[in-house]
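Example record used in the benchmark description.
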Amino acid sequence: MSSENHTPQVLVVGAGIAGLAAAGAIRELGWDVSVVEQRPDFDGTGTGLFVPANGVRALAKLGVLDGIACRGRLISRLRVHSADGASQAVAPLDRVWPEVGPSIAIHRTLLQDALLEAALVPIRMGARLSGIAADGPEVHATFDDGGTARYDLVVGADGASSAVRGLLWPDAAARYGGESYWRGIVTCPPDLTDWTLTLCEAGNLITIPIGAERVYWGAGVSRQAPFRDDLPGRAARVRDRFADSTGVAAAVLDQVTDDAAVQFSAADSAWVEDPVAGHAVLIGDAWHATTPSMAQGAAMAAEDVQVLAQELGRDPRPSAIGDALRRFAARRLPRVRHVQDTTAMRNQLAALPLQQRLGVLPHWEQISMASFAPLVSEP
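Model output (structure tokens):
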């Protein structure tokens, strides 16, 4: 691989949103890209997600907007209200994201399908990275089946529990983010049209229509330490915890009856100050995972890919990759750090007792605009 004339060889680790987007964008540069994914298959068990306007803008730059717009649902307002519906506030998204574009809610599997269609690269499922050496112009990768390979670039896009980060940044393990969530998808009540947050005694309940008459719901609680919630009886426990909800939120929870359809997990955070090690780089949650209070996971991943492809495309020579990665990190650091810091602030608000959370309602639009203002400009 020492010749400057060869086509750069790239390994993307992880076939989630960040990995598939990166694979497609780097392939568009004319580089040879392959993907490894530790899951044995795309099992389709994901729930939903909300992609704010900055993420949709980045996905449009990557050429996949049409593929997601036809599969998801446009969202125009962020609504928050008390469990009894007596107090509420609305933040119009055209004010939160002035002239940026639409925000879209979508089933995670459908977003994955759109990215798969665009990626057009080989994906090796059930493959785990077991070793990596990135201290020179090439990256040497070892896999759990004993196979080895050399690459000009390795992109770690393997989520908050990233194997790439664990191998190259062993002191930067993912940590509990202070929140845990139950999630699922049910039939959408006809009256639910907005991204809606219901403030309950136990925590916060979010309900988002995602198209095809379905709604994604997520119920979150703030705790000092992570905890387990075993599958048997899980659906009933969620309904009991958030039983003070009324209206469309209650109509959603009334449908949560199947334990197997309720996912539960602690929300992890991850961070490294510098995501570059030689010719290896972290993107998405592998670099900067946060809890979901800003709904910026997919958006930040898409922005990462947009900027990474731009910087790699400036000079196709393998010897220029190191400089491209350093420019990428320098451009992205202020935005991803803002999301880290603002998420921490919003998590503090979410952990307040109910009456104090209700006190935030008069300031909801102001908080929403301030949270996202630094992300309105192009990345």
